[in-house]
């Protein structure tokens, strides 16, 4: 297949592109390479896919490389670009679109709300419009566990009410699900939303807890631990997330048209809630250092606990993430030490 992966220089998008190429598919990666975090990390991800920084820098210019014997193309483009995005769809004729591009981060949305509307709402509308008009067979897109907001049912199920988000980021992701439902209903566009649960692993984002904690402990600096450490997360290893994404991207959609089930949403999580203090302990074990902790109140927009129920993913795709935190943290820290020469 020919598959568009947006956010291809991002954490999950990079790993998804790599796995799709390894499975023999043609991938076109799109990313705007913004400065939300160090762009050099994004350029270095692309470098492992054969695209140099010089090739990736020009706007609206397609660069090509060969990975695992398959063609990988990259274009630097904003999802908000209503002029050039349709031209890309018209030229490439994608079979599947995997929309992983978004302005991420719960806390950042408190200070920069406009960015979330531009990328996550306007940008996603453009993806929907292009998918509709250029005969995309399946649109797969990233949602988030944050949509559960003030939901008190544990574990979180896709059948739960998600009308009480507590951050604009969460509200934007819930909006994506509503927009996708509308396009599935009106235009017979198969759409699948994926609610990711606290993704971590090699090449991860520097604003995420594992990266922040590892960096600070390595430098003998204190770490900020919110809600006085009384947090639990369904930490999900990136390879497990990407395996689920790719299975769904490559899944059949014809049966869904026959069954009139064009709109789907799945949780992708480890189906396990890990205490934050246990997570920190595993980092300490791998680094051979104790963390100095600043115990602080819970941050606005944060929830105390997440836990994914993945019954639908098992039923429809015979798949459930299962990498233990111990193994995943070890893999991340090995990457971190190598990448930063620690």
UniProtKB/TrEMBL annotation:
Coiled coil start-end: none
Lineage: Bacteria, Pseudomonadati, Bacteroidota, Flavobacteriia, Flavobacteriales
Positions of the NAD-dependent epimerase/dehydratase domain: 3-269
Gene3D superfamilies registered for this protein in UniProt: NAD(P)-binding Rossmann-like Domain
InterPro entries: Epimerase_deHydtase, NAD(P)-bd_dom_sf
Annotated SUPFAM superfamilies: NAD(P)-binding Rossmann-fold domains (SSF51735)
Domain of life: Bacteria
Protein's recorded name: Putative udp-glucuronic acid epimerase
Keyword Membrane: no
Keywords: NAD
């Amino acid at each position: 297949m020919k598959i568009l992966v947006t956010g291809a220089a991002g954490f999950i998008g990079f790993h998804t592109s790599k796995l799709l190429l390894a499975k023999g598919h043609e991938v076109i990666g799109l990313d705007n390479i913004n400065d939300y975090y160090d762009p050099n990390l994004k350029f270095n991800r692309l470098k492992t896919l054969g695209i140099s920084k010089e090739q990736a820098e020009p706007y609206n210019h397609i660069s090509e490389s060969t990975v695992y014997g398959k063609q990988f193309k990259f274009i630097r483009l904003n999802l908000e670009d209503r002029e050039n995005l349709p031209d890309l769809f018209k030229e490439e004729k994608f079979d599947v679109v995997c929309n992983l591009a978004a302005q991420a981060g719960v806390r950042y949305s408190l200070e920069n709300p406009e960015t979330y509307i531009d990328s996550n709402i306007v940008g996603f509308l453009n993806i929907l419009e292009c998918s509709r008009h250029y005969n995309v067979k399946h649109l797969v897109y990233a949602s988030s566990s944050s949509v559960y907001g003030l939901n008190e049912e544990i574990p979180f199920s896709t059948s739960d009410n998600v009308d009480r988000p507590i951050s604009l980021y969460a509200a934007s992701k819930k909006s994506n699900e509503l927009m996708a439902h509308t396009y599935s209903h009106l235009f017979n566009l198969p759409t699948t939303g994926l609610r990711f649960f606290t993704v971590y692993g090699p090449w991860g984002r520097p604003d995420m807890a594992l990266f922040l904690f590892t960096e600070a402990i390595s430098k003998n600096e204190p770490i900020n631990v919110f809600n006085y450490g009384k947090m639990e997360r369904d930490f999900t290893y990136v390879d497990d997330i990407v395996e689920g994404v790719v299975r769904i991207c490559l899944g059949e959609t014809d049966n869904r048209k026959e069954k009139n089930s064009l709109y789907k949403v799945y949780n992708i999580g480890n189906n396990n809630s890990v205490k934050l203090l246990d997570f920190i302990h595993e980092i300490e074990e791998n680094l051979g250092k104790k963390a100095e902790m600043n115990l602080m109140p819970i941050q606005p927009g944060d929830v105390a606990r997440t836990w994914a129920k993945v019954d639908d993913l098992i039923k429809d795709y015979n798949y459930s993430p299962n990498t233990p935190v111990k193994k995943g943290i070890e893999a991340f820290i090995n990457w971190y030490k190598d990448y930063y020469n620690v």
